Each structure stands twice: as structure tokens, then as C-alpha cells.
Amino acid sequence: MIDSVTPERRSEIMSHIRNKGMKPEMLVRRLVHGMGYRYRLHRKELPGTPDLVLAGRKKVIFVNGCFWHQHDDPYCKIARVPKSNQDYWIPKLTANKERDTKNIKALEAAGWSVLVIWECETKDLDAVAVKIRTFLDE
From 3.40.50.720, 3.40.50.2300, 3.40.960.10, 3.40.50.300, which CATH number describes the 19-137 domain? Predict the structure, then answer.
């Protein structure tokens, strides 16, 4: 399948994709703050630069985009692999997943507990709230 936009336009589109402050992350941040927990954002000295860091509890939360981090839930509709330019996308997305796994292992080895919230999960914030409260209060 051929890409429907020019390489120049695709490059422009991709350059506008941010890695911080996206809608799913903002939803989780507001939720966690509203639950009374306080956190720091994007601590660069930690592996993977977690989205939320609760240092006193030694816990971190990642809010992952289903496409970019290849959510492996079979019911997730967002985590599809593009049909065009697979020589580029498959290695890139695979490397993202491998990097995530390496970062989580490094955090756990350093004594941190890790929770991953997936983009598709943010459609049900009540369920996310239960998941977060369970994680933070254990």
C-alpha cells in the first residue's frame, strides 16, 4: 500500500507529535491530582523518564500511547501496525517496545514499582481510578 501523502507532508505531520502533555497523560494527571496524590513530572534521571513520579512511595506511572508503544491487548483498536512503509514502522515500533521493557526492568531493579496506563484505558476513568488507587495504596 502506498502512503496517501507526500514524504514532505508526512515529515511535517510527524514533527508535530509530542511526547509530553498529550490528552491521555493530562487525563491521568488530573485524575491522580484529584484523588489527592502529589507527584513530579518526567524525572529525567529515572529510566524511561516516567510521566508521573511519586518519589515518597517509590512508584512511577507511565501513560503510554497504544500505537507508539504497541499495546498488545487484542481488543485495542489503536495499536495497529501501519500497512504502508512497514520496513520503517515495524523496527521502530518493536524498538519502542523493547526500550519500554528495558526501562521498566531497570526501574524495578532500582526498587521502583511501575504502573502502565494505556491510552485506550483512559476512556473509562472510573476503572483507571480504581487501578491507580490500588497501585498507589498497596
Answer: 3.40.960.10
- How deeply is 24 buried, as exposed, middle or buried, from its count of CB atoms within 10 A (0-12, 13-18, 19+)? buried
Q: How far apart are CA 19 and CA 34, in angstroms?
A: 23
Upper half-sphere CA count for residue 51 (Cβ side, 13 Å): 24
3-state SS of the chain is CCCCCCHHHHHHHHHCCCCCCCHHHHHHHHHHHHCCCCCEECCCCCCCCCCEEEHHHCEEEEEECCCCCCCCCCCCCCCCCCCCCHHHHHHHHHHHHHHHHHHHHHHHHCCCEEEEEEHHHHHCHHHHHHHHHHHHHC
Encode pLDDT of 101-137 as tens digits: 999 999 999 999 999 999 999 999 999 999 999 999 9
Cα–Cα distance, 43 to 12 (Å, whole number): 28
